[in-house]
Amino acid sequence: MAFNLTRRKFLQTASLAAAAVPLSKVVSASTGVTKAPLDAKGTNGDKTVVGGICEMCFWRCQLVGKVRDGRLMKLEGNPKSIDNGTAICARGNAGVKLLYDVDRLKYPMKNVGKRGEPKWKRISWKEALDECGSKLKSTVDKYGAQGICVFPHGSSAKYPMHYFERAVGTHNVSEASFFQCRGIRDTAYVATIGKAPGEKIDMPNTKVLFFIGDHLGENVHVSHIKAYIQGLQNGAKLIVADPRFSASAAKADIWVQIKPGTDTAYILAIMNYLVKNNKYDKKFVEEHTDGFEEFSAAISEWSLEKAAKECDIPAEQIKEVAEMLAANAPNVAIHPGRHVSWYGNDFQRQRALACLTGILGAYYVKGGWVPSKGPKVGGVSWAKEDHGHKYNLNFDHHEDEKVHPFNPPGTPTELIRDCAISGKPYPIKSCVVWGQNPMQTIPGQEKMKDLFRAMDFVMCVDVMPTDVTMWADILLPEASYLERYDYIKKGTQWDLSKEHQQYISARIPFIPAMFERKDQIYITNEIAKRMGHEAKIPVKTIEEMVDKSLATANLSIEKLKAEDGIHIQPGKDPYGIPEDFEVLLYNEDIEDAGHPGAPTYKPVEQPPKGFARLLYGRAPVHTFNRSQNNVWLKNAMPDNPVWLNDQVAANLGLIDGDVVGFVNSEGVESRTTTTVKVTPGIRKDCVYMYHGYGSANPLLTIGVGAGVDDQSLITKLAVDPETGCNGMRNNFVKLIKDGKVLDIPA
Amino acid sequence: MPSPDTSQDIATLYRFLAQCMHYPDSDWMNEDFLNVFYNLLGTLGGIEEGVEIRKSINNAEDYLEDLQVEYTRLFINGVPHVVAPPYGSVYMDKSLQGTFAGNTLAFYREKGFAMDQNADLPDHLIHELEFLSLLAEENDSAGEKEFLKKLFRPWYTQFHARVTKEAHHPYFRVVVMLIDFFTKEEDEDGFQPNEA
Asked: How far, in Å, CA of A188 to CA of A351, rounded?
């Protein structure tokens, strides 16, 4: 196809003049390029912008941005930071590529095709917000506030989550960071010491580090890693229980190659050994614990031999670990973990860790569990309102008690999904997904799809077109962490033995939000206005929210900018146990709720013949699916090879680099393939891969189909009875090579 | 150097081409616009192309929505992936806001122009066409030629090829062909090879 005259000829003839007159009548008057003063050649407007706070992962390091002509060129750690300092990780560096990722969401879009098979049409914010507001209001009018379910994640999701919980009044909010991650840890420690533990162990100053499954080094959070490495440099011994030779196991003095799912038995045996041999901290137990008798009786069956058999590890090694802990107590750091939703028996394991810390007297002492004394900064959000228990799915009205009595905040995911899909006990007809990708964070992808199919309306807010966004009716583009104000980060210096200091910083954008991306305050408030809640709106803008919060600490955005993005003030000595601190070794409330009051081991299902247990974990340069489309990070770790025991591989005739797929014990096959990593560093009864690969959404042009999506193979849904959180390591797989399914030898 | 009148007409032409690449909206994508568009095609001997577009528009239940869906898929976010983001940096730096975008902005500045506060990125096709229009208005044909050679054609050829190959709607295929036609270099004899 071509025109029948040349450009030059057209431009030189009367044709152009004849054509140009009507053309001028149909063009808009304004242009994006405008007349301006002449500018000299060379670079223009180079500056260092302070006040950034990373969100490539939840650790949120403090940043500065190197900006040229309005373009963010480079990210660095803020030199003033007493947390991450000038260091940021690979993901932090690669934030630039997220900011300028061409696949990012840019404008509000409406799906004019089928839900799950979208045909996107760009629409105006007004149309998008009108549709979201009217659809959500219609759900509330017809079914009540409980007719809306919310899946939020990240710092930008807090404000909208509070809106739907508090102002709208739905209980049906489920955060993956709780129900598929750390919620079990937090509630188990709350039930034991009255506080969520964070990762607050004094690693730089400890004598022994004790990890259950923690794989620091692959699990990279800058100041946490600094503290860990400082501890090792200072001579701390490291004990790592892991079926796999992880990055931490590689540095361990004792690597306990434990059978998956048996960790609680292992901890109980250590504690029983310490009790039976009078190697526990009697003074601490007497002064700061409750229920020692019931506790010691409950764990008394766990001899070294019994645990050795159950955990498939040498009894002598359990004893060696117990002796090492006892010899160095109380200066021992029992890591509480973070992602702990493993087997559906996890509350009891986390309780056991909290109790082990207690009988070693390792709370509030140098090298133990020590919460730093950070600065106080007030938050601003929607006012709390009491919406009663009538529509709380986690409340059993017949028994007049909670279904999962130690649930983290929100409603357990499975209760929401079951209700939404079945319509019982009431209909849930609208779904709001904000910054979470439930397709890859929550096990049971088909069940998640069923939930979306059951909805009248689905809206998603995100920065990237993650897998879940394919299920949205309206898809809204959010400003990224580099383009918006929001999160207030506060804390202390990472090494508690150094000069006590506190810091306060707030997220300040490096560049204005590009395209038509908006922040969470704008989006939430506009929806709230359309749902009739305008009078309850707590702040008009995100800057107002940040400033109001900072004002509680006599700070402001402007003051922070003047202080290079971080306010530093004198801190307080965190060591020394509070008088009222108590460790409930036996918790009567747990017993009254129908669960074991002392830490108890519950065996988990073992792999059927021919299958291996599927384990997963963090990759050092990725934050799961969130960073899969980042081209720098993709190049660093393009896929997630499956770790396979070398003897198993030899029996199967597999070698390093072979390409395999998977089928699980329920017949679900992986959509994609990955390569085999043959290693003696993993047990024969399990395989391992990094989580978050193999995205299904083709809108992620870099990340789609790269590696295998482990979540797609996690179809057996375990639920931790005390908390309602998911257990995600009870699924079993075989490998598929060249179309042939390979049985894993026993 | 073209006469001032011709330059003004060329400027109008660039502005029209920029307009064609805006997100289709009822504010401007209407009968009047389409008639002007068909007439231009007719002047160039592109009657067949005009007929194809007219047919597609007349047969549509909602032609504007069809164009909007297609624009979104081609240039914003699309399934299976966005076909042809209209930004030079995407082709030259494999990213938005790469060095190429910086160089583009620097060129604007050297010529005494800047980006409006509400503008898209400097290397967006629309803004590059607007800039060419402004250069033509100033009768800066040397600047126009330099910009086309250094900062427009290197990426536009790739963009053009992608849209030509992947577009479902004839409107966008023809628009990118028009832009190609009016920005392509010709040899000394004014001969423009017929790629068909």
From this structure: 5
- Asked if B106 lies within 8 A of A41 by C-beta distance, the reply is yes
Q: 10 Å Cβ neighbour count for B196?
A: 5
Q: Going from the N-terminus, what domains does chain A have, and what CATH number goes with each?
A: 109-173+382-478+512-545 (3.40.50.740), 181-359 (3.40.228.10), 612-742 (2.40.40.20)
pLDDT per position as a tens digit, A560-605: 999 999 999 999 999 999 999 999 999 999 999 999 999 999 999 9
Cβ proximity of A180 and A441 under 8 Å: yes
Establish if B20 touches chain A: CB-CB under 8 angstroms: no
Residue-wise pLDDT for A691-729, tens only, equals 988 887 777 777 778 899 999 999 998 999 999 999 999
Q: What are phi and psi of A335, to 5 degrees?
A: -70, 125
How far does A476 lie from chain B, in Å, by closest CA? 12
Q: What is the pLDDT of residues B19-75, one digit of tens each?
A: 999 999 999 999 999 999 999 999 898 999 999 999 999 999 999 999 999 999 999
- Tell me: cis bond preceding A578? Omega within 30 of 0 counts: no
- Say if residue B195's pLDDT is above 50: no
Q: Rounded mean pLDDT of chain A? A: 95
| B185: contact with A, CB 8 A cutoff | no
Q: B85 CB near a chain A CB, below 8 Å?
A: yes
The matching CATH number, chosen from 1.10.3480.10, 2.102.10.10, 2.10.109.10, 3.40.50.10540, for B4-183 is 1.10.3480.10
**DSSP letters for A493-545:** -SSTTS--EEEEEE---SSPPPTT-B-HHHHHHHHHHHTT-GGG---SSHHHH
Residue A381's nearest CA partner among A157, A539, A175 is A539
Residue B190 has pLDDT above 50, yes or no: no
φ and ψ of A593, to 5 deg:
-85, 5
Structure-token match 């560093």, residue found: A681
In chain A, positions 16-55, which contact chain B (CB-CB < 8 Å)? 16-20, 22-28, 30-39, 41-42, 44
Domain boundary assignment for chain B: 4-183
CB pairs under 8 A between A and B: 211
Residues of A in contact with B101 (CB under 8 A): 71
Token code pair at residue A726 = 């998911």
- Distance from CA of residue A108 to its chain's centroid? 26
Interface probe for B, chosen from A7, A13, A24, A27 (most Cβ of B below 10 Å), is A27
Distance between CA atoms of residues B14 and B128, nearest Å: 9
